[in-house]
Amino acid sequence: MKHVFIVGGTSGIGYSLAQLYLEKGFVVGICSRDISKISDSQKSNFQVFQTNVSNYIQLHETIESFISKEKKIDIFINCAGCYTEDVADSISYQQAEEMLQTNVLGTVNAFEVARKIMKNQQSGKIAVIASVSGILDYENSSLYTKTKRAVIQIAKAYHRALKPFGISVITIAPGYVDTQKLRNLNANDLSKKPFLVDEKTATNIIFNAIENDKKFVIFPSKMKWLMLSLSVLPSALLNVIMFKKAKWMKSK
């Protein structure tokens, strides 16, 4: 029986993936800072841990508990992420710190914990959820965009380092996915979210990417080509376009 562990697995894409892997017959472990997001009846289907991905020791102990019997993990997925808009609005130091801790340090922690176990196995898959916004590189991009760009670059480094040990690294860069979190952030109004993808479709795309060992997947395709087109523009022009886009999305 195969084992999958999902960081950030109590809500959104993470929980949707956990349900799908359970249906596929996997032993599924999930963790989150807030495990109250799922009910007791839902928890009974998984091995559930209250864990902060920003805390390496805590995450390591969690994974050790998950693999205590089988001493193996086939797939490790990091869905943890933190978002605060700082292009159209100012953000606090605490909000900035949380994004850096979760999106950047948490990504490194996840790779390191999974790497140590899978290196001994000489096999395994590590998947990380980045963002299509991380494709863009320009001076005044938001802190969120910069952290997600860092996630993509970190994953590339681990892909190269772990390939000789039979470990696959899969990076997923989704556009807008219709999750409850996205709805909460936008007062349930997603009218300004282009190329919106429903949660089930996103889950299936991610599952298939992991199953087929895809190195880097961007979806949906329309968002992929839009962002790739924008990425070739001069930084100064991209700054103006993206600032206006952020202001428009914040306007009523």
Automatic annotation (TrEMBL):
Parts forming coiled coils: none
The keyword Cell wall biogenesis/degradation appears for this protein: no
Molecular function terms, GO-annotated: oxidoreductase activity
Keywords associated with the record: Membrane, Oxidoreductase, Transmembrane, Transmembrane helix
InterPro entries assigned to the protein according to its UniProt record, in alphabetical order: NAD(P)-bd_dom_sf, SDR_fam
Stretches that traverse the bilayer: 225-243
Keyword Nucleotidyltransferase: no
Pfam families assigned: adh_short
Family matches, as SUPFAM superfamilies: NAD(P)-binding Rossmann-fold domains
Family of the protein in this entry: Belongs to the short-chain dehydrogenases/reductases (SDR) family.
Protein name: SDR family NAD(P)-dependent oxidoreductase
